[in-house]
Amino acid sequence: MLPFETTPSAVTMTTSTALKFTTTDGKLPKVLLCGYGDLGLGTLKGLLKLAQQKQIELLGVFDWNERTCPKAERHQTDEAIAFQRFLRQQKTRQFTRFKGMQDVRFTQEVLNRYQPDVVLVSSWGEILKEPFITQQGSKRLLLNCHPSLLPKHRGANPYIATILANDAETGVSFHKMVPALDAGEVVHQASTALTASDTGGSVRRKCATLAEIAVQELIVGLCSTQGLIPQVQDETLASSHTLKQISYPWLNVVQAPADYLERQGRALQPWCFGCLFFENQVAVLCQSVTLEPNTVTAYSVPGGVLLQLDPTEGLLLSTTNPQVLLRCKGLRLFQNQNFEAPLPEALSKLLLPIQLPVGTKILAF
After folding, report:
1. In what order do the strands lie in the sheet with 288-293?
2. Helix axes 200-223, 37-52, angle to 10 degrees
3. DSSP string covering 67-91
4. How far apart are CA 177 and CA 134, in angstroms?
5. Residue 129: left if φ>0, alpha if ψ -120 to 50, beta else—which one?
6. CB contact at 8 A, 68 and 35
7. What kind and span of H or E run contains 59?
8. d(CA 249, CA 51)
9. Percent of the chain with pLDDT over 90
10. DSSP state of 144
11. Which tens digit of pLDDT belongs to each residue from 278-290?
12. Where do the domains of the chain lie, and which CATH numbers do they carry?
């Protein structure tokens, strides 16, 4: 294993040491990637460029998918499949048939055998815990690539959270792993601007593209004479969200501000649709959500009233702002039976389409 050195530093608001590789006998830093999907693919492309330039030795990839991890069936999305296809095209070594990174066999057959200097995680379906983090962190550098500007938006799918927060920018953060989720010292960050038309999917693609560049900057910095100084995260700026906020994406037109509803509609694309409840127990599933000036009616109506229903234009709803309306296109109308269940389960019941009269009001919840 290549020596990984810490050197004293006096930079304020940071840890007291800088991280850097110390080269001996021309040996290259050995890097192992654990990941999948768009973010993993972007990171892998950056590592392959470094390997081609003889700046690192890429040991291989442990990709989180159903062929390698028995519990990873839900991760077989298009981007996960694209990641696996790219691995085969590049003929990159793959480590397979482990239950996860904390599988004892993975430690014995991969970590102990190949002795990576850096284990880099970039999208993963497993939360790493003690004693794995402490045991491996004492031997090698454990880094996670998180697609947000930490300490903002810790946790799963920060692409949604960054749009809901109306952030002007997002990015990727390479941080040291600690038992607390996404709370370790940040070794390197890179940012990219957001626009008013970004969706959760487009933010994910931006972060993946950024990761390809940022991982090269990370490794170059670690190999430099001065190294990189890890930054302690400011807990007063930390934020996170729960998976329940993604699993139950109800658009609360009666209470939520109009601009928040528009951001929520963009943030949820392409993973799931937003749902609306009506008085006659009807759920409306919206494929896209936009805001429009109130030109339909000259009088003020409460938020959540159906003003227009058109096969092409979708439906138009009043919001809490009488000057702003909510347009939902690409919708489908279903008889509401039991939406206490998670959204995918509810959709699997083959509910019957029905019609809605103009003037129907949405239920508050």
Report:
1. 288-293, 324-329, 314-318, 306-310
2. 30
3. TT-TT-GGG--HHHHHHHHHHHHHT
4. 9
5. beta
6. no
7. strand 57-63
8. 42
9. 49
10. E
11. 654 556 777 788 9
12. 4-237 (3.40.50.170), 244-347 (3.10.25.10)
Looking at residue 311, its amino acid is: P
Q: Indicate the average pLDDT of the chain.
A: 82
* Per-residue pLDDT tens digits for 87-125: 888 888 999 888 899 999 999 999 999 999 999 999 998
Q: Model-level pTM greater than 0.70?
A: yes
- Alpha carbons 135 and 357: distance in angstroms, whole number: 63
Structure confidence at residue 337 (pLDDT): 52
Could you give the CA distance from residue 275 to residue 285 in angstroms, rounded to a whole number? Answer: 5
Q: Please give the single-letter amino acid code of residue 143.
A: L
Whether residue 235 contacts residue 151, with contact meaning beta carbons closer than 8 Å, is answered with yes
Per the listing, tokens 């990941």 go with 35
CA 56/CA 39 separation, integer angstroms: 20
> H helices of 199-356, where?
200-223, 244-247, 258-268, 343-347
Integer-rounded Cα Rg, in Å, for the chain is 24
Q: Name, of 254-268, 281-295, 343-357, the range with top average pLDDT.
A: 254-268
Over residues 216-237, mean pLDDT: 95
C-beta atoms surrounding 275 within 10 Å: 20
pLDDT for residue 12: 30
The three-state DSSP-derived secondary structure of 248-293 is CCECCCCCCCHHHHHHHHHHHCCCCCEEEEECCCEEEEECEEEEEE
Pairing between β-strand 4-8 and β-strand 17-21 as defined by DSSP bridges: antiparallel
Q: Give the residue from 349, 236, 216, 200 showing the smallest Cα distance to 283.
A: 349
Please tell me whether the peptide bond between 270 and the residue prior to it is cis, using omega within 30 degrees of 0: yes
> Residue 329 pLDDT more than 90?
no
Q: Is the peptide bond before 131 cis (omega within 30 degrees of 0)?
A: yes
CB 140 within 8 A of CB 4: yes
CA distance 362 to 121: 43
Identify the sign of the CA torsion 155, 161, 162, 167: negative
Residue with tokens 């009807």, as numbered in its chain: 282
